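Blackboard transcription, Thursday session:
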Amino acid sequence: MSYDLWYWPGIPGRGEFVRLALEAGGIAYRDLARGEGGMSALGLDLEQPRDAPPFAPPYLLADGMTIAQTANILLFLGERHGLAPVDLEGRLWVNQLQLTIADAVGEAHDVHHPVAVGLTYEEQAAEAARAAEAFRADRIPKYLRYFERALLHHGPWLAGDRWSYADLSLFQLIEGLRHAFPKRMATTLRDCPKLTGLHAHVAALPELADYLASDRRLPFGDGIFRHYPELDAG
Amino acid sequence: MSYDLWYWPGIPGRGEFVRLALEAGGIAYRDLARGEGGMSALGLDLEQPRDAPPFAPPYLLADGMTIAQTANILLFLGERHGLAPVDLEGRLWVNQLQLTIADAVGEAHDVHHPVAVGLTYEEQAAEAARAAEAFRADRIPKYLRYFERALLHHGPWLAGDRWSYADLSLFQLIEGLRHAFPKRMATTLRDCPKLTGLHAHVAALPELADYLASDRRLPFGDGIFRHYPELDAG
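(Written on the board underneath:)
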């Protein structure tokens, strides 16, 4: 049994949260849009008639189902492959964390695209500069302190005594924010020892070693997390 | 047994998606932040030490658990109270739709707050005008056509032969967008007969009649969905 993953080729984006879970879980999958003609193949697949159409990538084809929305795919993988607690409280807690991570990812994207996704960064650079100021001052500390607080009663993992998909996602969020806002993250993470620890624990997971060292692990590029030096400050 | 709901008083906001599910499901709850001192009580409650702290309202206190994130609360209520299909495929489909509705809600909010949630609309009105143009031209049609397409293979409900919490949420999204962008919604909904039908079906649910006619159903006001005439056009 193998799953098929569809996501925009060329950027890690939201697909990367799914990839990390698949890779760390040792779950076989094909990354269908990687390779020659991937973008047009994805475009064609998106237009396929389906009972349960996806609004946007990423989506996973599994057991005849089409499963879209990152947090929903991870909910499925978590239940099916034991990548999250099985009890109700733990399952809801991990889903809640994942949705909060998704909110942070969306905000990080909107910093460089505050006006419209259909315009380039250059067409909204002035608005982005204003948005980045608020994101650095208020939102980065708010999110990081929240996750630090979430780890206070748990730790080293967010739930239970092993990693869940939310730990992998939080690692990826920190990676992305560090890429986009290295100066701001350096000053903010100083007050977040548990979060820093979680990032290091995930980075050192034996289950991820091959993947993180491989060329399947894409650079951030012009994706959700972008480094524009003019948008960063300590 | 009764649940406790915490949400910002004075606006329907994201709390309303939870309220609609509770009300239509005939589930007993207290709306703790409504009434005298509600805002400061909510502020104090948010600071409570908790194993599983919420990042933001809404959150539900149920059976000793604190459950946050709108889609996560609805996932819980759907499973516990039969407000969604019980089979895996149907359950994931409804969660996927809810997450897509949540994305649309977030974008609708960001139109009037494209730069920062900490600033007023007036402080970002110029940016909002640009954002609204793209939202009206691209995003409203994209979301509505998607939900119309989702209903093509289902209908009159999004999943199964009775309403689920996603139907209630889609009703509320349409209500909100109609309030904020009445001209644009009038022209766009013309091509969405199934979506228009779903909205009418939910509005006519006997389970919601008392609630929708009561003063517990708050006006949109200065919440997520706001009507600024200068941001709307057909």
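Lecturer's comment: Chain B touches chain A through 46 residues (CB under 8 Å).
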